[in-house]
Design goal:
129 residues; mainly beta
Length: 129
């Protein structure tokens, strides 16, 4: 299956759809199919991939940077900066402290959440209550 994102005039992803590989044998054929399907000949569609092509798998709320040919996730906080070439958002003071909670679960089987959260007002990582 081929995945496509519809991009608005502000380069934001506003829709995501899946097209059969039998139809989207190339990116352009998939785009042509979607323009015809939705009767929107001027719509801007871009194929997205899960293998790191175009940096990230595009989703609603992402931005598509045509110059860099990259999908960029939504900025989580106003103070965060975009790190290139990975195109990931980082806090102005670096990554959250290491907590060793990855893949751990609570007694009920639900995932154990990260112990730290970003405090935008004070520009620092804080322990979650």
């Amino acid at each position: 299956m081929a995945n496509f994102c519809k991009i608005n005039n502000n380069n934001e992803v506003i829709a995501c759809v899946v097209v059969s590989d039998n139809i989207a044998t190339t990116e352009q054929l998939g785009i042509n199919f979607l323009k015809n399907l939705y009767n929107e000949p001027e719509a801007n569609w871009v194929q997205t991939f899960s293998d790191g092509t175009r940096k990230h798998f595009g989703g609603i709320g992402y931005t598509y940077n045509l110059t860099e040919d990259a999908f960029i996730p939504k900025k989580p906080y106003p103070s965060w900066v975009l790190k290139k070439p990975e195109y990931i958002w980082e806090s102005p003071v670096g990554n959250s402290p290491i907590t060793y909670t990855q893949n751990l679960t609570q007694r009920d089987g639900s995932p154990l959440g990260d112990l730290y959260v970003w405090n935008e007002l004070h520009q620092k990582w804080e322990i979650r209550d």
